[in-house]
Specification:
Layout: H1 5-36, H2 42-72, E1 91-94, H3 100-105, H4 118-124, E2 128-129, E3 132-136, E4 141-145, E5 148-152, E6 156-161, E7 171-172, H5 175-187, E8 196-201, E9 214-220, H6 227-233, H7 236-246, E10 251-255, H8 260-274, H9 281-290, E11 295-302, E12 305-315, E13 318-326, H10 335-349, E14 354-361, H11 365-371, E15 376-379, E16 381-384, H12 398-408, H13 412-423
Helix pairs in contact: 1-2, 7-10
Amino acid sequence: MPLPSSERSASAEKALDAERKLLKAQIKLETKKRKQLCKDDFAAKAASSQALKALKKALGALEAERSALNAQVPDGPAPSPAEVEHFPAPFSVSQDLKGWEQFIAAQSASLYHHLDWRPIFADVMGRDLKYLTARDDDGAVIGVLPIAITHSPIFGHYGISLPYMNYGSAVAVADNVEMALIRHAFAQTESWGISHLELRDIKSRAELTPRTDKVCMSLSLSGMTDLNDLKAMVGSKVRSQINKSLASGIEFSMGGTELLTDFYKVFSRNMRDLGTPVYGIQFFASILETFSNQAHLVVGYYQGRPISCAFLLNQGASWEIPWASTIRSGNNIAANMALYATVLQEVIKRGAQEFDFGRSSIDAPTYKFKKQWGAQPRQLYWYYSDSQYSNALTTTSSRYQLAIRAWQKLPLTMANRLGPALVKNLP
């Protein structure tokens, strides 16, 4: 069966592009050869000039053929670079950041891939950064891989793409470019002085063996105009809980840095109660200042006291809640239900099409809480340069359970003083 014209055109253009790359490489080689010829070797120089002219003529003819082919293709959106499975041209990997932001803007990359995070990772959290770029033979960026490295006498020396977040790893125009970036990074662990590298990915890669015990819970909000649309979708039990929690008298405010102190009162207390070192308040302040249009705080007040809180990030029509907390006294009035109901109501009003509840382990209490809202699991793939580290930092180990119990007993002031220094070195 003959191919459709669009597929034939795409195939022909791909072949022409490959030929074009080859001709350009030959021209570059011939030009270099000509420059190296002895000044007195007029015959050799003349022959080289003729060869160069012939190559450039062939390239001109190829470009004309390519233009003619493009003119035959009906108007319509061009295929996304992410749809390309293989990039045929030779490419190189470096730490040159020129063109990074322009490339990211054209890709379906996460908010965390943007360079604005570099001062937060480096200056606030003390990470050593290795941001890799892949470039084609014309110098254009065709892939990126951000990496943050920790050098800690307590927790060891390792790299993550990206720490504190759920998303990272390589983003490129083609799968083979992504794998080239990943393999390059894996090969650098010794020279970077780290034991291993962890990549937090959303793609299954046949070449690598992933850790798959984590998922992100995602809720489609497409077609919803208010909270009532969502309540109509969830079960009667959840609907009753939402209505009861919203009637409890909790009052919510949404804003930015003006809510940070109250946000941190709730968040730091809850982290202590969970046995987890807390991020420093400057970490959140830096995100709010850097991403003033994408970062938002929500704080719930009960009888004049902050009792529940959330940190929101949005990228277009997609919203994420990477951090949320409710202090224990809020459980009696279902403050957590009121928090999420209020947040979802607000993002729906702002045109959200997707809401990311964040990371969970399958069947954990947080997983079940998010699932009751209609959220569905999206598999996360964590890859390691050395497989022996794939489960080294799980909180289920006896070592971490002991540390958790000890941390829960600390006075809050001490936990808030010690936590930020420790968490800088944790994933």
